[in-house]
Amino acid sequence: MSETGVAAFSVLGDEVRSALSERGFTTPTEPQREAIPRLARGEDALVVAPTGTGKTETAMLPVLDALASADEERFGIGALYITPLRALNRDMRERLEWWGETLDLDVDVRHGDTTDYQRQKQANDPPDVLVTTPETLQAMLTGSKLRTALEDVDHVVVDEVHELAAAKRGAQLTVGLERLREVSGPFQRIGLSATVGDPREVGRFLTGGRGCSVVAVDIGSRLDVNVVRPQVTDRDERLSRELVTDAETASHVRFIDDLIRENESVLLFVNTRQTAEALGSRFKELGTNLGVHHGSLSKEARIDVEDQFKAGELDALLCTSSMELGIDVGRVDHVVQYGSPRQVSRLVQRVGRAGHRRDEISSGTVVTTHADDTLEALAIARQAQDGDVEPAEIHDGSLDTVANQLAGIVMDTGEVRAMESYRIITRAYPFRDIDEAAFKEVVRELAENNVVWLDEDRDTLEKRRGTWQYFYQNLSMIPDEATYDVEDVASGQQVGTLDERFVVNFATPGEVFVQRGEMWRITNIDEEEEIVTVSPIEDPAGEVPSWVGSEIPVPRAVAGEVGELRRVAGEQLQEGAPAESVAAHVARRYDADRETVADGLSQLEGHEAPIPDAETILVEFRGREVLVNCCYGHKVNETLGRVLSALLGQRAGSSVAMEVDPYRIELEVPRRISAGDVMEVLEGTDPDHLPALVELSLKNADALKFKLAQVATKFGSLKRWRGRGSTDFGRDRLLAALEDTPMYDEALREVRHEDLAIEETAALLEALQSGEVALETVGERTPIGLGGNASGRELLSPENADASVIQTVRERIQSDRVILACLHCREWDRKQQVKRVRDQPECPKCGSTRVAALNPWADEVVSAVRADEKDEEQEKMTERAYRAGSLVQTHGKQAVVALAARGVGPHNAARIINRLREDEDEFYRDILRQEREYARTQSFWG
């Protein structure tokens, strides 16, 4: 018999085989059949398989067998099991404790919440197996007793290694493993991973490129994924009134509720916490037996719903990406994905959680919400079943991680030769290409920031007073941003957390939002203690929190297939083929129902222009709107959009607003920009100049400045970066001060790595200029171009917001305060609530009606207006004030209301005012649309 089948268990010792029989393990799973013999031989290996296929036992059975059968007595830790989330430690402990007791091995857990007593006990009497996190390993390496305990480590298992490979936490861990190697000598490395597109690269990440066996289970053939766009029924029209939403969203809720009732246990995945809360509130209204689970809920709340679901007390768990990882919630019959999963890997990981009885098919349903969503989900499902998964994007050469680990190495030994630390760091795979010059710049920066002492004569790094404080404040590479605890005023219990950016920009006493599927009204905000006090309400018309986190980027391969699908179907339609037969043809190819496919192809109806795909870019013009249809995914479109925005803005001498999705770049340009300007930029930009152009565009955006502040903290240049009140704390000055430092280089690298695709975009420009990619134009908006408006639609916010939402907006704006300032005599200003402003404001000193309405914090604008001599910035402020004053003089209080809205400046206020409308509600609807637009696009404004 080959090294498969039951023979896999035969390589294990008698004690383990006996325990397997007692535990009910009669036949190994596929990853166990393939991997256990290799691991028993001591090979380094990466095991790639879905959650629930026994990956933990795959890795740990050979490790436990080796520990239990060792001839020599061991005094330290024999094996480390490293997991990315503390929540996983609870599951690992429950699953490993039994094995430890049976094999007479001590298994323990150590992370940030471990008590001092337990830590001391582990240092004095180390366990055989320690389950821990990447950050806690960092701390363990610096303790004298624990370093002695770590000398005996022979095995390290890294769980969810695919998650770590794409994060700075993982880059930090790879150096941590090399530091561990300095203590223990070589050890066996075992990685457990979900399906990835480049398992060998992840294996190199794990082992430092020293060689790694890869055991990969083919999951694509075991996926049964159905893509459905629910059709609105008469029942949904009635249900929409009950759920206080539109009929379309009601149809989604009804369809998913039916799926939950058809299955015993369902995981319902959504892409954002905001969607989880909004959707959860609707299911609560419907009476669906489900729990809500995401990272901003308290630990107790998450554990409670996990346990309820595992015990069968809940029919479904509505969750975000945290449940992609291996948290044990018991049997899952079916997985529902609400909206496109955006990436193949996410669909595979999520649907892969269903099933797992012996060789069972994993079944899932993707419920789509608009045409782009449907075509995207069809492409992703097809690629998943064919095994076309995206590669993990490793953070190669992150300099702030080098800085962090330099301090760690100094903490390990107290003193180290600089080039010895360079040798340790560059053994880690993500840092293999760091050159000595870049490394020395990092060393000098740390020395200047008093993190380490650099003795240049001896070429040594030594501990100093600030090293200990820096290191323990920066154990994690996760950026340090403030979060506010949300507490119920009645019970005093924590409901969850809110991101600081939401609190600063949106939250005020009286505002309503959704959390944990329930509605809450803010009663107080304690900024020092970072606590938001709330009270529960029954009103379902609240504002959904604006959670942290970028939109999941759609890869180029997915966007390209959507373009191909559109082109093939669109050309058939343009040639006169009946829509029904075209939909039927696509449905056969993608194994989908005809109604869903027809809905996805609906944006092709009436599209007479060339159809954009991977080989055709279509540019649309209408007034100040420019829309570039390009099917290249988020990162390429973001890169190309930034270049267009920067160069067109440079030509016009003013800002150009930009918004992108995987299939479009939408620009709002000054009137002096013509179609010819846009074409010239696309056809005339030198691809070699792209990096410099992107860097120029980033300097005018908050993204780079915000990232620079975080990176500077990791270098010890800023003490404990916090975002609070930082929007005006001098990020421009910080950018200017740090521009020629490794901190700036790292911030730029990270933004490019996470959000952009420089090389791919340069290749696209070359293809466009050589004629390989066609560039077409049309002087109107096309159905495909307009399809992007649907993809940006906020969940549960119908196109015509319902009356209670409009009333909430009206009341909020009327209660807001504005500064009224006379622009004639320039001697009078007053802060006043909007509702107390006269229909035609006028200055009480000179009687002029030329009065500007300004934001209540815009005192510097008033000062600029009064200044006799003004700098460039003050001139801009004054010009803005005079434009606001002209609006108020012409339109009175209506202009004051529009100007008081969030992110609505004089230009957009004028657009809102000048629209013809039937009633006042429409006026406030336009304001609400503009506020939402501002919230989506504010990071792109210089």
TrEMBL record:
Hydrolase in keyword set: yes
Keyword DNA-binding in record: yes
Native source organism of the sequence: Haloarcula limicola
Name assigned to this protein: DEAD/DEAH box helicase
Sequence similarity: Belongs to the Lhr helicase family. Lhr-Core subfamily.
A Pfam family per the record: WHD_Lhr
SMART domains referenced in this protein's UniProt entry, alphabetically: DEXDc, HELICc
Domain Helicase ATP-binding stretches: 36-214
Keyword terms, alphabetized: ATP-binding, DNA damage, DNA repair, DNA-binding, Helicase, Hydrolase, Isomerase, Nucleotide-binding
GO biological process, one term: DNA repair
GO molecular function: ATP binding; ATP hydrolysis activity; catalytic activity, acting on DNA; DNA binding; helicase activity
Domain of life the protein comes from: Archaea
Record-annotated Helicase C-terminal domain positions: 255-400
